[in-house]
Design brief:
- It contains 16 helices and 6 strands.
- The chain has a two-stranded antiparallel sheet.
Length: about 500
């Protein structure tokens, strides 16, 4: 989950500090390479100025055309003279690159619908919102609380039944695994309710809203206010390749993507995909919270428990008042950790692992799966600079078929996510109606992929390795791309 770019404040760093940060980055990459995909790599570093070869490379790039089967041609690149800093990714000259310009090789069930965005007309946000019935924005505190109680009761009920009827014996391991999956799946509903609280979609009563969200998220070891802030940034920069937040893809010809490509070459596509998915689902969420992995490059190595980590200035993840809110969030998580330790001492560590840790890991799995598939697929592009805007980013969100059971347990978080990105204050119980209105008004822009979830997950884990700049879009590739075919060799920080 990361975006990577570097703000002008980075120029203030002394050379020795940059060197120290780079060494730390290398160590972290070594740890993450076997566990994370290109979308879960930490990108930290200093500013590198454009080389003398850059103008010639840009001229070469501008001379070619990028053929895209799904939508005809995209004009060659033309850089925007903004006067802002630029970052030139590095790559090893010894690594073989494609000898031909890459074309769109893979398609999802959307069949390239999201590509060639510069050939489409996107409405203003006000125009989109005007198409959604006004009552869809109305919050009902009692109704919201009902869903919070249902999710909590299901989760706690699973735990009570397991405690009463499942012996802590190896012979019952399959039953405990099943319990972890069921309880964790129910707990994800609590997660989603807290997510609505963080967005202001739960109640017009802010005290009630934040109290419910704080309790539910803290219970799942999520720093409520810290995540509220980072997730708001995610919404404000959806599918921005430099300033996005969570699941921001690596760019070709950078250290991040080189590490993943090397691992893929070493293991082979199948084993790499299995390891990639296991690493992302098991470690992706805590690594993101602790290091900002898969966050935007402009923010560096952030930490949801330490507001002073990462970039400062305009790209700080927790500016101003948010610093104190991070510490408030830490108190809730620390209290839960303390309670778990006391529980382990009073009973046994295995009891806590079986009843809490198992479901916790399963809940994390659902969280990462939803977020990853909501914004990533082989034919869904990212953008940067003036090629990105809020509405375009929102319409790069993907709705998928999770079925009636998961839609009930998880409050339709995966099947109505486009509407959620159009306006995050729409309560989930109005999201289906809002989605239908968006589909009716903008059928050419709305994205829905009917691919079965398991198939889509394997495809994303296998094929969405890194992005390169083609025309005005950053598109996914599972092959290394030579700089001469990458319009994004020089990255402009927006």
């Amino acid at each position: 989950m990361r975006m990577h770019s570097f703000g002008s404040n980075t120029c203030e760093y002394a050379d020795d500090v940059i060197s120290c940060r780079a060494n730390a980055r290398h160590a972290l990459h070594a740890f993450c390479a076997t566990a994370m995909s290109a979308m879960t790599m930490v990108r930290v570093g200093g500013l590198t100025t454009a080389t003398a070869a850059a103008p010639a490379r840009r001229a070469s790039i501008s001379a070619r055309k990028a053929a895209v089967p799904a939508g005809g041609k995209i004009a060659g690149s033309s850089r925007i003279a903004t006067g802002r800093a630029s970052v030139v990714p590095c790559a090893s000259a010894s690594i073989p690159m494609d000898a031909e310009p890459p074309s769109q090789k893979y398609y999802s069930g959307m069949k390239g619908k999201a590509l060639n965005a510069d050939q489409k007309v996107f409405p203003s946000m006000a125009e989109v919102l005007s198409k959604i019935p006004k009552h869809c924005f109305v919050k009902d505190t009692v109704r919201s609380m009902m869903y919070a109680v249902i999710s909590t009761a299901l989760t706690v009920g699973c735990g009570v039944l397991a405690y009463l009827y499942l012996p802590l014996q190896m012979a019952y391991l399959p039953a405990w695994i099943a319990y972890a999956f069921v309880a964790g799946t129910c707990a994800t509903g609590c997660w989603v309710v807290a997510h609505e609280c963080g967005h202001g979609a739960f109640s017009d009563n802010k005290l009630v809203q934040d109290t419910v969200g704080y309790i539910l998220h803290s219970s799942l070891l999520v720093p409520y206010f810290s995540w509220q802030r980072s997730h708001a940034v995610h919404h404000s920069r959806t599918n921005h390749v430099l300033e996005g937040e969570t699941h921001v893809p690596a760019r070709v010809n950078t250290e991040d993507s080189d590490i993943v490509f090397k691992l893929r070459d070493l293991l082979g596509e199948g084993p790499f995909t299995a390891l990639n998915l296991a690493g992302v689902f098991l470690l992706g969420w805590p690594i993101y919270l602790l290091t900002g992995a898969s966050g935007g490059p402009v923010r560096g190595a952030t930490n949801h428990f330490n507001p002073n980590a990462g970039a400062t200035g305009k790209h700080a993840l927790f500016p101003g008042k948010w610093s104190s809110k991070v510490w408030q969030s830490d108190i809730g998580c620390a209290a839960v950790v303390g309670a778990l330790i006391a529980w382990a001492v009073a009973s046994s560590p295995m009891t806590v692992i079986a009843l809490y840790v198992g479901p916790y890991l399963c809940c994390n799995f659902w969280l990462v799966l939803y977020t990853w598939l909501q914004h990533t697929d082989v034919d869904v592009p990212h953008f940067e600079g003036d090629d990105w805007n809020l509405v375009k980013g929102a319409f790069m969100t993907i709705d998928r078929p999770y079925g009636p059971v998961l839609d009930f347990l998880h409050h339709k978080i995966g099947s109505t996510h486009v509407a959620h990105h159009i306006n995050h204050t729409i309560p989930h119980y109005h999201a289906r109606e809002a989605t239908d209105a968006i589909v009716a008004a903008y059928p050419d822009l709305y994205l829905y992929d009917s691919t079965p979830i398991a198939t889509a997950t394997w495809r994303v884990g296998s094929k969405c390795i890194a992005v390169y700049k083609r025309g005005n879009e950053w598109v996914f590739t599972d092959k290394r791309v030579g700089k001469e075919f990458d319009d994004g060799a020089e990255v402009v920080v927006a």
